[in-house]
Amino acid sequence: RKLQKEKRAQARQAKENNQTRGDLLKKAQDAVNAYVRVRDHSKPCISCGKENPPMVYGGVWDAGHYRSVGSAEHTRFVLTNIHKQCKFCNNSRGLSGNPVEYRKAMVSRYGEDYVLALEHDNRPRHYTKDDLRRIAKIFRARKRLYERLKGL
Q: Which residues, in sequence order, are CB contacts of 62 under 8 Å at separation 6+?
């Protein structure tokens, strides 16, 4: 049994070491998005303000980015750039992020100066594999903590 346990541990470590940066980026993004959905659990959709939108496209809620990951990849993990958003507002078959209403909500929540600073934030952020592993670990732990605190 001890030998089998050791083999499994070595296989797990080898699998972890062979992950690509893209794999780790996806895991980190999934962890951050899950955290944001729990963090904003009691809040409505940032764009349309709906509390209980209809089930569309395989679920109800996404973690929507104000500055999209495609156009501003460096703001991917900025928490004030990510909020709970209904699938219809966030989906390309729906409103593609509903940017006008999203911006209005951001201005009312954080103020015009902060939104302008976020829109003009172009500082490069380069994440190593270890950074991405750490981000995923931190946000999985934060999500569990928020779930316990909010009783979810």
A: 33, 37, 84, 85, 86, 87, 90, 91
The predicted-structure confidence for 88-137, as pLDDT tens digits, reads as follows 888 877 788 889 999 999 999 999 999 999 999 999 999 999 999 999 99
Are the CB atoms for 95 and 55 separated by under 8 Å? no
Q: Indicate the pTM of the whole model.
A: 0.86
Write the DSSP assignment of 64-86 as a string of letters: EESS-TTT-GGGTT-GGGEEEEE
Q: Return d(Cα 34, Cα 39) in angstroms, integer.
A: 9
CB atoms within 10 A of CB 149: 9
- Whether 23 contacts 132, CB under 8 Å: no
Judging by beta carbons within 10 Å of its beta carbon (0-12, 13-18, 19+), is residue 70 exposed, middle or buried?
exposed
Nearest to 90 by CA among 121, 116, 68, 71: 68
